[in-house]
Design goal:
185 residues, binds protoporphyrin IX containing FE, Di-haem_cyt_TM, Cytochrome b, Cytochrome_b561_oxidase
Length: 185
């Protein structure tokens, strides 16, 4: 298996995937919250972009998971307490879960919708409905509620994740953040 030894930094591919997916998710959350407001202009276009970028996150997350399974990340510092190491692994696991579950919930929501609104990814590729789902308002509402809960969980995790990264950088000064930065080697 390629790259099974621990190295000091994440691989370049892992770094590019991390920051691309991170930016997409932050954009999805910000515009996801804004697009549901009545006063927001161009809502239809923003909904379409939201769905397009959400499916992009799903595709990139598949690539990322495959890459992650084939390339071990650098080890956490030995000085890091056990509970922090466990918390870090747990947070990353939940992140991976949400990176798959959130787009699938969004996709399921629009698939279950009985409104005749097609999703066309980036205005080019029509998104088919997920198979096996009935088109019902009640089912759509259920996926919508779960999508909202997932969004809140995502926001909470991002705050925790950024807080932990800043603690490593400015309090522990152990170089953990630098391993994921494209600059500042
Ligand atoms: C990582 C991927 C995604 C994230 C982080 C995300 C995030 C969000 C957020 C924060 C909202 C606003 C929720 C609220 O009203 O509180 C939202 C709404 C929505 N999302 Fe996503 N989303 C993702 C993927 C998708 C995908 C792939 C689709 C469809 C293909 C989708 C369809 C929708 C729709 C239709 C709404 C509006 C629901 C409503 O009318 O209230 N999302 N999303």
């Amino acid at each position: 298996m390629a790259g099974t030894t621990h190295s000091a930094r994440y691989t370049r591919v892992a770094i590019v995937l991390h920051w691309t997916i991170a930016l997409l998710i932050i954009g999805l959350i910000v515009f996801g919250l804004l697009m549901t407001k009545e006063w927001m202009p161009n809502r239809f276009a923003i909904y379409q972009l939201h769905k397009s970028f959400g499916i992009t996150v799903l595709a990139l997350s598949i690539v990322r998971l495959i890459w992650r399974l084939r390339h071990k990340p650098p080890a956490l510092p030995d000085a890091m307490p056990g509970w922090q190491q466990r918390a870090s692994h747990l947070t990353h696991g939940v992140f991976y879960g949400l990176m798959f579950v959130m787009p699938l919930l969004g996709w399921a929501m629009v698939s279950a919708s009985d409104l005749p609104i097609p999703t066309v990814l980036f205005g080019v590729v029509p998104l088919p409905d997920l198979p096996g789902l009935a088109q019902s308002e009640a089912l759509e509402a259920r996926f919508k509620a779960l999508h909202e809960i997932g969004a809140k969980l995502f926001i909470g995790l991002i705050v925790l994740h950024v807080g932990a990264a800043l603690k490593h950088q400015f309090i522990d000064r152990d170089g953990v953040l630098r391993r994921m930065l494209p600059i500042l080697r």
